[in-house]
């Protein structure tokens, strides 16, 4: 009888334990699958045939709400006929490759992150847009981003479309306690530490926060900000003395960082609650706090280290595949999508920023205006160390990231020896890069072959 | 004809559940074991196990899992026994209502329970707000630097969530004890404690054993509560198994963790069989 009850209860409980996964939400700027993502071309293009419609395949703005914005608010201004087809990263490459193999196809415009574009460029699947670019050059694109779209060579293989990045936000009252001589818009790592310590003295508690929880993007801070700022590189200087200094900075500073940082996913929450007064996070994950009470916040660039201001832009671009059936229509659509009006709508509705060095000539809501201002100051910094999202790792990205979290755990949370940890983990890192066959990406010197850890 | 039917009927009735177990428990289990001993390129290998053992988080995950178990199981067992006695007390009015109240947390998923306790213990949570109302300064409870407090929070959350499952099994066991045995003890002048010690407890052994085994096996699987309350501050074996599968995308290492959990569960079951032996006459009638 009792055993029966046990067995009966065990079934559903065992099953219930399985579907409670932690959400591993990637950055909202990274690809977000729209689930089905079926071809929404509709096929019935007003009887015409002849390539009148532009099929726009995109890994960006793919979540249902964002895709609706594209279809209902952004595309209607386009003079021709266009069909927006959101997809995930894997589906994107599969489709574009399939079309490239047949030599022609309905997909004429591509929207994707720099990483995917770089894969397609390596396969020689993208059209060179440099001749047409003069038509829209005066819009004032950020030079660093155009450089990316050139892929270290002649030509221009996509037009920068959207950007997001990671930066810092603070409550106004916290800024009053900046260490003397520090400028919030040109903070050094050491000044940030002094500020954090000062805030502990003033408040009696630790109020600087990082998103180092399960859903957080703290690994981007390590990969794109801290290490490049101290070493000027990432993998190639992974175990250098400069890297030891970077981890040492983190370990020292962590004593003044809110202990619940290892739980934080999106910093907008603790900022709004007042639990944290100074935070670093992805633009989309600070946005809600800034929009709720813009007057209470200051948005500013991430700190500068000995090698400069390491920062990681997330850039998405618009490109035309060589196999496009309607390249002229696609170019017209690019001009429309990168127009002031379309970029302003995209920013207001989705929080993705325009990749321009000058501000949009529209009235933004004050929270977004703060965000764009902060991003502009960060991207236009003259000592920037541009770091890209890891590329070429494929399914090994999780293991790659684990290396950084393992060092964080050993040296910062458990206060272990930094040199020893780096030496052990350097081997791990090299093994992961080797297995993935990944070459170096910026800020490391790019080149052929597997990236070599120092 | 009639004889033949009664002979085969029990087996026929067992077939569906047997098939279910084979298909959804035994088969995946064998598969997981195979995976745990396969190299990354295929073929037999100890590579996944070696990766697991040399993982930076392995020792901590193992110790935390065992530590949580050692704290949670005895506590839950004592609580559940008390709750079961209350529910089974025939003199108590409205005792079935207690059964439902006690069983309520069972209806809540592990993750939801984790979030409930997170909202209590977090910096701006209910507990600190409550303390502030009395002029006491709040404390950061979910602090990886105070693992003892963190573990205590986990134990509390788990005790709240899953004590009822032990209670349900014990109540079922209590109800199967014949009234005449209790009455006989009364007649011979046994007090409450003597009755409990010499009649109830021995006859409850089969239920106790099932409850302990089931609870231990389930405790090895707990991870949503740990992830919500401790984040990166603390980890357990099942959370690592999940991460190796979903985040690091190394199913072989995830399977090695899962296999370890299985082995530990089997050892625990064997342990309970040994320390709670059941004699023939204690079997439920």
Description of the structure:
The complex is a heterodimer of chains A (454) and B (285). By secondary structure, chain A is an alpha/beta fold. In chain A, 43% of the residues lie in helices and 12% in strands. Chain A is built from 17 helices and eleven strands. In chain A, strands 2-1-3-10-4 form a five-stranded mixed sheet, sandwiched between helices. In chain A, helix 2 (64-74) links the parallel strand 1 (53-58) and strand 2. The radius of gyration of chain A is 23 Å and the shape is globular. Chain B is mostly helical and 285 residues long. Chain B has helices at 2-36, 47-54, 58-88, 95-103, 110-121, 126-133, 147-175, 179-187, 192-221, 224-230, 237-246, 251-275. The mean pLDDT of chain B is 88.
- Main beta-sheet annotation of chain B: none
Low-confidence stretches of chain A: 1-50
How helical, in percent, are the residues of chain A? Answer: 40-55%
Q: If you average the pLDDT of chain A, what whole number results?
A: 86
The oligomeric status of these chains comes to heterodimer
Following the backbone from N to C, one meets helices and strands of chain B in this order, namely HHHHHHHHHHHH
> What would you call the structural class of chain B?
mainly alpha
Fraction in helix of chain B: over 70%
Low-confidence stretches of chain B: none
């Amino acid at each position: 009888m009792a055993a029966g009850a046990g067995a009966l209860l065990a079934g559903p409980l065992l099953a219930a334990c399985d579907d409670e996964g932690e959400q591993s939400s990637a950055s909202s700027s990274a690809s977000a699958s729209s689930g089905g993502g079926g071809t929404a071309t509709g096929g019935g293009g007003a009887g015409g045939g002849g390539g009148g419609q532009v099929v726009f395949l995109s890994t960006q703005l793919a979540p249902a709400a964002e895709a609706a914005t594209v279809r209902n608010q952004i595309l209607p201004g386009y003079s021709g006929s266009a069909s927006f087809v959101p997809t995930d990263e894997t589906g994107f490459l599969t489709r574009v490759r399939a079309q490239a193999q047949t030599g022609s196809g309905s997909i004429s415009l591509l929207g994707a992150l720099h990483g995917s574009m770089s894969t397609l460029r390596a396969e020689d699947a993208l059209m060179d847009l440099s001749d047409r670019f003069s038509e829209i050059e005066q819009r004032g694109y950020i030079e660093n981003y155009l450089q990316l779209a050139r892929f270290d060579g002649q030509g221009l293989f996509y037009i920068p479309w959207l950007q997001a990045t990671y930066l810092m936000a603070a409550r106004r009252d916290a800024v009053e306690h900046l260490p003397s001589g520090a400028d919030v818009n040109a903070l050094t790592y050491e000044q940030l530490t002094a500020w954090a310590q000062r805030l502990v003295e003033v408040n009696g508690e630790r109020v600087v926060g990082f998103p180092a929880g399960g859903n957080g993007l703290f690994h981007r801070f390590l990969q794109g900000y801290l290490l490049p700022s101290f070493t000027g590189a990432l993998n190639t200087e992974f175990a250098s003395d400069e890297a030891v200094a970077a981890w040492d900075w983190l370990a020292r500073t962590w004593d003044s960082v809110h202990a619940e940082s290892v739980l934080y996913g999106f910093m907008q929450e603790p900022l709004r609650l007042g639990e944290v007064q100074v935070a670093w996070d992805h633009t989309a994950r600070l946005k809600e706090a800034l929009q709720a009470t813009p007057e209470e916040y200051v948005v500013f660039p991430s700190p500068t280290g000995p090698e400069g201001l390491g920062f990681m832009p997330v850039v998405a671009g618009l490109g035309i595949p060589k196999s496009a059936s309607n390249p002229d229509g696609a170019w017209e659509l690019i001009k429309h999508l990168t127009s002031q009006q379309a970029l302003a709508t995209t920013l207001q509705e989705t929080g993705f920023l325009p990749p321009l060095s000058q501000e949009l000539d529209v009235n933004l809501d004050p929270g977004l205006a703060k965000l764009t201002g902060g991003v502009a100051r960060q991207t236009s910094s003259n000592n920037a160390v541009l770091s890209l999202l890891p590329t070429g790792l494929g399914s090994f990205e999780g293991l790659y990231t684990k290396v950084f979290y393992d060092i964080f755990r050993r040296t910062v949370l458990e206060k272990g020896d930094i040199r020893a940890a780096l030496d052990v983990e350097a081997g791990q890192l090299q093994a992961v890069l080797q297995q993935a066959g990944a070459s170096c990406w910026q800020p490391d010197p790019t080149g052929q072959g597997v990236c070599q850890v120092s | 004809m009639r004889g033949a039917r009664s002979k085969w009927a029990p087996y026929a009735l067992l077939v569906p559940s047997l098939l279910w177990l084979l298909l959804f428990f035994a088969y995946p289990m064998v598969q997981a074991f195979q995976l745990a001993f396969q190299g990354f390129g295929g073929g037999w290998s100890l590579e996944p196990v070696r990766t697991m053992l040399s993982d930076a988080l392995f020792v901590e995950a193992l110790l935390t899992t065992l530590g949580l178990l050692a704290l949670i199981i005895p506590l839950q067992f004592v609580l559940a026994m008390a709750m079961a006695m209350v529910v089974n007390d025939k003199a108590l009015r409205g005792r079935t209502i207690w059964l439902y109240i006690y069983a309520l947390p069972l209806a809540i998923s592990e993750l939801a329970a984790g979030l409930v306790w997170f909202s209590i213990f977090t910096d701006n949570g209910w507990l600190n707000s409550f303390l502030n109302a009395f002029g006491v300064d709040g404390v950061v409870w979910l602090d990886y630097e105070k693992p003892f407090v963190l573990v205590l929070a986990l134990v509390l959350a788990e005790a709240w969530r899953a004590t009822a499952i032990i209670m349900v099994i014990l109540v079922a066991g209590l109800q199967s004890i014949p009234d005449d045995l209790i009455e006989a003890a009364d007649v011979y002048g046994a007090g409450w404690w003597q009755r409990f010690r010499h009649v109830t407890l021995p006859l409850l052994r089969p239920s106790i054993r099932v409850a302990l085994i089931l609870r231990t096996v389930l405790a090895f699987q707990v991870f949503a509560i740990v992830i919500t309350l401790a984040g990166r501050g603390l980890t357990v074996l099942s959370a690592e198994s999940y991460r190796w599968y979903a985040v690091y995308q190394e199913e072989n290492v995830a399977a090695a963790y899962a296999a370890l959990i299985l082995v530990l569960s089997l050892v625990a079951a064997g342990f309970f069989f040994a320390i709670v032996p059941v004699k023939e006459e204690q079997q439920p009638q």
